User: Which sequence fits this backbone?
């Protein structure tokens, strides 16, 4: 397999909004693709392209004076609560704009001023507020990225490309590729059908599409990658088609061919504009409580120390969110739910963690045999046992599953495999007793179960799940 340099864009939440389960889906899929590609020795550059620019920040600037709490209250407010306040401010301003066309026009005029100030590096109270919003949002996001072991190389906001976007549009205007229509919009004809793409508004402000063009051209100059991958929901298919068409029109067919949109189904029922959102912080809190309840009532939980139990519950909550998402084909749409998430003997994160910790326990109880195990390879003829043969057969499929997951950018292939491995390994662990067996049989059985634990551990780590050795 030829080593490639790949730039992968994922997560990319909007600032000033709660990090919701829809953002999380892009993050989890993107992190899986990053880990898997790196494990296969590809050079990966990951980018978190923050949604930190657009008319919504003019709505915030307009509504904030009547929303902001007193200084002492603001200073003591947690970042998550500040984000909720920003969201409320935006929702209220947006609602006002829908009912008041004059106010909507004033906000758009304010955004044009903000963008001009940004492009010309001028100070303004609106940009000062925007920078404060960005600082709060980044600290807020870091909490979630830390919990979910998210590691992205570069965090670059959309705002970074405003100046380059205007330079590019001016050049394309001079070349006659872009023109101003009768409404004063800077547009580019698409495909001869009479349709056109808007690249700059009549008030001089840029749009998301034009900033995206400047961004991908900047990335290509900087990274010179073999491909540019975007992990974005399938509703953005049209956006990427437009992006490629425009690159073709401006003579960058080579760059258009490098763009790959890895699409996924959306998590149903999420809309910040209407004030409805599934914030990940609320989902994690609910998951933690359900996990604590499970740890308290389950007879299979061995840890007794209260701090250890809390740690196990936190792990199970995060693992559950990850596995609940990645076990589904990425094209599928779904509504997040904790139903059966903490039920025993179900295909869930609890199953993966319980089997891994059980296999760790078997190794621990037979630690004297481990030096001998490390020097051997599995002998399928050591004993004529259907459980050992079934487990060995499944372990041999691991490499093929990784190839399939890689070729299809599909984490569900690995997740489903690991669930089946957990079930098979559980049956094998019950049938293949290691203690009080002849040494040759004991060593072969321990080797097979240790191999299962190793594969399970490596697979879980690729998903972003931290394997528990004890629970």
Assistant:
């Amino acid at each position: 397999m030829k080593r490639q340099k790949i730039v992968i864009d994922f997560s990319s939440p909007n600032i000033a909004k709660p990090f919701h389960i829809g953002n999380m889906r892009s993050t989890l899929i993107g992190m899986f693709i990053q880990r898997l590609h790196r494990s296969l020795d590809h050079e990966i550059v990951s980018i978190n392209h923050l949604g930190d620019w657009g008319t919504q920040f003019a709505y915030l600037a307009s509504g904030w004076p009547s929303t902001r709490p007193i200084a002492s209250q603001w200073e003591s407010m947690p970042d998550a609560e500040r984000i909720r306040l920003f969201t409320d401010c935006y929702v209220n301003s947006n609602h006002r704009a829908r009912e008041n066309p004059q106010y909507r026009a004033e906000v758009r005029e304010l955004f044009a001023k903000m963008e001009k100030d940004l492009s010309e590096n001028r100070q303004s109270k609106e940009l000062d507020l925007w920078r404060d919003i960005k600082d709060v949002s980044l600290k807020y996001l870091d909490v979630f990225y830390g919990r979910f072991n998210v590691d992205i190389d570069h965090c670059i906001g959309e705002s970074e490309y405003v100046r380059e976007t205007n330079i590019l549009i001016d050049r394309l205007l001079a070349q006659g590729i872009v023109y101003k229509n009768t409404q004063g919009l800077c547009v580019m004809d698409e495909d001869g059908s009479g349709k056109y793409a808007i690249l700059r508004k009549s008030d001089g402000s840029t749009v998301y599409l034009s900033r995206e063009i400047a961004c991908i051209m900047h990335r290509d100059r900087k990274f010179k990658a073999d491909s540019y991958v975007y992990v974005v929901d399938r509703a953005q298919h049209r956006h990427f088609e437009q992006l490629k068409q425009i690159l073709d029109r401006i003579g960058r067919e080579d760059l258009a061919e490098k763009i790959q949109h890895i699409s996924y189904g959306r998590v149903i029922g999420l809309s910040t504009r209407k004030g409805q959102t599934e914030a990940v912080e609320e989902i994690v809190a609910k998951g933690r409580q359900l996990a604590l309840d499970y740890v308290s009532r389950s007879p299979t939980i061995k840890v007794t120390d209260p701090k250890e139990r809390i740690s196990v519950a936190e792990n199970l909550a995060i693992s559950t969110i990850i596995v609940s998402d990645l076990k589904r084909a990425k094209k599928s749409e779904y509504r997040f739910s904790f139903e059966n998430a903490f039920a025993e003997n179900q295909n869930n994160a609890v199953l993966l963690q319980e089997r891994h910790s059980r296999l760790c326990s078997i190794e621990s109880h037979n630690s004297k045999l481990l030096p001998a195990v490390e020097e051997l390879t599995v002998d399928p003829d050591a004993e004529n046992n259907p459980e050992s043969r079934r487990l060995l057969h499944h372990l041999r499929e691991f490499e093929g599953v990784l190839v399939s997951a890689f070729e299809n950018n599909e984490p569900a292939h690995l997740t489903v495999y690991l669930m089946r491995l957990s079930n098979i390994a559980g049956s094998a662990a019950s049938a293949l007793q290691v203690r009080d067996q002849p040494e040759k049989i004991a060593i072969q059985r321990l080797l097979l179960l240790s191999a299962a634990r190793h594969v399970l551990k490596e697979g879980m780590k690729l998903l972003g799940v931290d394997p528990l050795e004890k629970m």
Residues 270-275 have pLDDT under 50 and may be disordered. The CA atoms of residues 266 and 372 lie 50 Å apart. The first helix runs from residue 21 to 39.
